[in-house]
Amino acid sequence: MSAQSMAEAWAPIDAAHRAAVMKETWGHLAPRKNKTYPGYVVFALGCYDCGRLNPTPLCCVFRGLDDSPWFYDALIEFLRSLKGEEGAVYRWRGTFRNYEFKGAVERMTLVANT
């Protein structure tokens, strides 16, 4: 059996183990089911579409919600689904419930201090 075949054979077991360790380590921080978290996210859309840092959350505040791997993944997926002008900063305000974001996005006007 080749090394690739062995890796494929163990992949489901490895994935289940990783999920169990992640839940055991960070599970107490996961968003609660059917609980609504009001908040906002300030984020920037950079000029490079394919970068891992695009979009970039600059500030994220949700009342009663701690950071967790699950929330981070949901947030990044949501921000990537939004359309906007590159090089701009936006604020989304609304609620997060059951891994769904509901609310509105507004472009922020930045003023330079001189």
What does it look like?
The chain has two helices and four strands; from the N terminus they run αββαββ. It is an alpha+beta fold. The protein folds into two domains: 1-28; 31-107, no CATH class. A four-stranded antiparallel β-sheet has the order 2-1-3-4, covered by helices on one side. The chain is extended. It starts with a helix and ends in a 7-residue tail after the last strand.
Strands across the major sheet, in which order? 2-1-3-4
Radius of gyration, Cα only, in angstroms? 18 Å
Which H/E pattern describes the elements?
A: HEEHEE
**What's the structural domain tally?**
2
Measured distance between first and last alpha carbons? 67 Å
Provide a count of the helices: 2
Sketch the major β-sheet: 4 strands, antiparallel
Residue stretches low in confidence (pLDDT < 50, at least 5 long) are none
So what's the overall shape?
Answer: extended
Q: Looking at the chains present, what oligomeric state does this protein adopt?
A: single chain
In total, how many beta strands?
Answer: 4
Provide mean pLDDT, rounded.
Answer: 84
Instruction: Give the helix/strand class.
Output: alpha+beta
Helix content: 25-40%
Quote the beta fraction: 25-35%
Mind sketching the topology for me?
Layout: H1 3-26, E1 37-45, E2 56-62, H2 69-81, E3 88-97, E4 100-107
Antiparallel strand pairs: 1-2, 1-3, 3-4
